[in-house]
Amino acid sequence: MKMRSLEQELKNNVYPGRGIVIGRSEDGKSAVTAYFIMGRSSNSRNRVFVEDGDGIRTEAFDPSKMEDPSLIIYAPVRVLGNKTIVTNGDQTDTIYEGMDTQMTFEQSLRCRKFEPDAPNYTPRISGIMHVENGKYSFAMSILKTDNGDPETCNQYSFAYHGARPGEGRFIHTYMGDGSPLPSFEGEPEWVDIKGNIDSFTDLVWNSLNEENKVSLFVRFIDIATGETETRIVNKNV
Q: 113-146, pLDDT tens digit by residue?
């Protein structure tokens, strides 16, 4: 696998949908994650990220224009002890509750599948970061149909024990725009992670398609101390 430029991956895809990046900062000091959402419909675009304890949740920007909250209102980020969970749907809660009863990340997701939004059947993408005693590892998952067949569900997980400075993995829901939207294929992309939290946030936000981008969350976790620093960017302000 060849390392790709995260900036170019985003700029060259008009509609990656929702995406998760997890890796390590360029200076090696921090565990890094980014989660973004995009939208084509007015309902999908009518959202913002807001802080919710140690995590975040989505919220209607204009509640009077909310149509169907079922797949767009959820907690993308929750923290369970030294673990940070990041997902594109309510499976955040499934992982949190499963791991809180000693299940693994993978075991927690076995009861879930892709979203019921025919004909797209949007994949559920998830990630978890584990920072403890100066050590860092992470895992990612995607639940998707088998080549568009809603009677099937393929569950893939990828574990990364250790992360090199300035490197990460990127998984997103769609390969690009289309009708139906083409689901992500393959293992998470190997991408670069550049700069500090502010420059990295700017790079990701400015590389997303201007018309379709909605919100972005970025968190840096100090691997030595566990201290966190967070940025949230909303198009609707």
A: 999 999 999 999 999 999 999 999 999 999 999 9
DSSP characters over the chain:
---B-HHHHHHT-S---SEEEEEE-TTSSEEEEEEEEE-SSHHHHSEEEEEETTEEEEEESSGGG----TTT-S-SEEEETTEEEEESSTHHHHHHHHHTTT--HHHHHTT--S---TTT-PPEEEEEEEEETTEEEEEEEEEEEETTEEEEEEEEEEEEES--TTEEEEEESBSSS-SSPPBP-SSPEEEE--SSHHHHHHHHHHHS-TTTEEEEEEEEEETTT--EEEEEEES--
Domains of the chain, by residue range, sit at 6-234
Q: Which CATH architecture has domain 6-234?
A: 4-Layer Sandwich (3.60)
